[in-house]
Amino acid sequence: MSAWPRDEKQSPGSCPTDLLSLLGRAERPPAAEVTQEGAAWLASATPSPYSALAAWQARPEAPGVLPCGAVFDVVNLPTVFARRVLDRLWSEGPGTGPVATHRGRVLLFAAPGTAQRLPALIGWEEWGGTDRTGGVPPLLCHGAGDAVTVPPLAPGPPSGPRWVVAPDTRGPWLPGPEVLLWACVGAARAGARPGEDRAVPAARRRPASSSALIDFSSRGSGC
């Protein structure tokens, strides 16, 4: 795949010019904030959008737990690899939709259905002969039946989840499985940059019942 798929029906996204440095900075950067339209889009993923939005607006500093599969899927990547994927998407591809960080991982919001198709596509690339991907690390794909922790509407604690690219419209463009396959395979083939830390933290899960979260979903846990 020498070029990103251009047959997507949605309009391309864009990225802040300082995004890569923002991901790599040790100190907490100024948090991107969700707009009213972006909050409405997030709430639309729940069975009761108006109730979810009211609860979130009452506690704008609290993270939420939202169900995947209907409005969006989420691809959960190790930070080091995610930086290469995002670099490829923004420098050579169509950009991204919303992007967040949580517990040392990068959450890339994707089109519904991506969680089901992307692992199979990556597996086919790996099956097709002598590790053509160059080593795509295991990705956590959250789709129907899953729920994820999303950052608060307003900036929260430095140790909590935060938006890198916050939703700002009721219909954000979301990359699909083909676009993400292209970005992941290209990032894996390119390899780590000189001096880049290859160590990545392991994924962990946080109970949605935690008092620090607003659980908008009927699922039992958020990543």
Give me the secondary-structure category: alpha+beta
Characterize the overall form.
globular
Tally of domains = 1
Helical proportion, percent range: 25-40%
Residue ranges: pLDDT <50 for 5 or more in a row? Answer: 1-20, 24-31, 193-209
The total count of helices amounts to 6
Order of the strands making up the biggest sheet: 5-2-4-3-7
> Major sheet: size, sense and barrel closure?
5 strands, antiparallel
Query: What integer value in Å does the Rg equal?
Result: 17 Å
On the 0-100 scale, what is the average pLDDT?
A: 77
- Return the string of H and E elements: HHHEEHEEHEEEHEEE
Termini separation comes to 31 Å
Portion in strands: 15-25%
Give me the count of strands. 10
Describe the structure concisely for a colleague.
The chain has 223 residues and is α+β, with helices and mostly antiparallel strands.
Describe it.
The protein has a five-stranded antiparallel beta sheet with strand order 5-2-4-3-7. α2 packs across α3, α4 (79-91) crosses α6 (177-190) and α5 (114-127) packs across α6. Mean pLDDT is 77; it is low at 1-20, 24-31 and 193-209. The radius of gyration is 17 Å and the shape is globular. It has one domain (37-192, 205-222). The longest helix has 14 residues, at 114-127. 29% of the residues lie in helices and 17% in strands. The relative contact order is 0.25. The chain is an alpha+beta fold.
